[in-house]
Amino acid sequence: MTGVPGPAGSGGLAGHLDGFVRAIREAGIPVGISQAVDAAEILTVVDLLEREQLRHGLAAVLLQRAAQRPTYDVLFDLWWPLSDRRRTVADEADGGASDDGDEPGESTLDIPGGDDVDLAALMREQLAQLLLAGDEEALRRFAREAVEMLGRGQPSPSGQSFFSYRVLRALSPDTLVAQLLTGLLAEGDRGGLAEQVARQTIRERLTALRAAIESEVRRRTAAEKGRDKVAKNAVRPLADQVDFLRAQSGDLAELRRAVAPLARRLAVRLSARRRLGREGRLDFRKTVRASLGTGGVPVVTHHRPRKVHKPELVVLCDVSGSVAGFSHFTLMLTQALREHFTGVRAFAFVDSTDEVTRFFRPGADVVDAVQRIGREADVVGFDGHSDYGTAFEVFADRWASAVGPRTSLLVLGDGRTNYRQPGLPVLADLVRRSRSAHWLNPEPRRLWGSGDSAADRYGEVIDMVECRNAAQLAQFVTTL
Known about the structure:
CATH architecture of the largest domain: 3-Layer(aba) Sandwich
Shape: globular
Strand content: 5-15%
Strand order of the largest sheet: 3-2-1-4-5-6
Radius of gyration: 31 Å
Number of domains: 3
Distance between the termini: 53 Å
Number of strands: 6
Order of helices and strands: HHHHHHHHHHHHHEHEEHHEHEHEH
CATH topology of the largest domain: Rossmann fold
């Protein structure tokens, strides 16, 4: 049976839960007061000695999206770790047992003594047996012992260090796949559906082993250096908090899922700005007729209902190398916005501008569209370095009619001009002719105007918005 840490500080269990909730908030997961109260209620209805029951119970009231679960699990393992209590004199006097059901301080592994024992080889044999059995609790206990025996690094002045890579290198669990397949499959099952199922089972168990080893390393590191410090390094940012300029390929799938609802909200917001208030032109006849009840004084005016049309959108996107990650995201946004606007025209630029709307037909793959832009679009006119001034001029010369009083203009880029002319008069004219204009900048606001950045100067003629991640994009859409 697994254990839960005892009272933490003067606040006891309630104080410990409060620290856990604060850590979740700091990781970017919104937790309201009512959810914190519900979490406290969970502690009164679940078996605190059943750690997994506690994990799932708190997750049910503290989380809103499945994408938040990996972050939550890392923090849960830090704040509610497996008990690591060792045998003391009092324990021996009482004959107590450990929280895990094993003798405290004694290894749960059957390792013979002797100086010439190949510890890693023996542990590999036991690991293979555990992976065949599929006992999750036994696998977690094995991971704890493996970290203790194989994961120690060189002692340092700050304390003992443990490393997951040392454990995995010594055990080499991926090399056990053939042995595990032999144990899981009967004669004649090779090459069929049974083998596919067995391979998937093995992958899942190996993933669980790695997760258990990493969790144990984090637990031991937290005991040495403190939970807060480990949490900052161990917790990956949520997908909506990953900077577009630093997004990895694994983050793009989650970003794609976040873009679609934001695009719908953006379309609704931009459409609402087109209305003249809530009403159209004055309906003179209805107003006069209503004034007869007030002695001919038009106390109440009546207006004709306005027809709400989908807005038109023009997107100007910087696709230079310095903003490659951001341009990938912004082109995903362009693709998602197509169905919400009467007409969407997309233009990409580096030091020249070309229309790339043709690459974003309905159903087109964004990754393929980005690659085609790099190969086929005429966006490089000189040396391939960003030249906003020239790009704006080319756009104004070739597609002057693209921006008009029915058009919403969206500029996407970092505003770094490589010390070239920024083209402020051209941009100001485009903004003046458009219905609304906004610039989304992936760089932090504190960097605007530094070095070759002209973002602060562009901000004088267009609404410049810091948009480093999906969370800031959502905030921009909400306040638009």
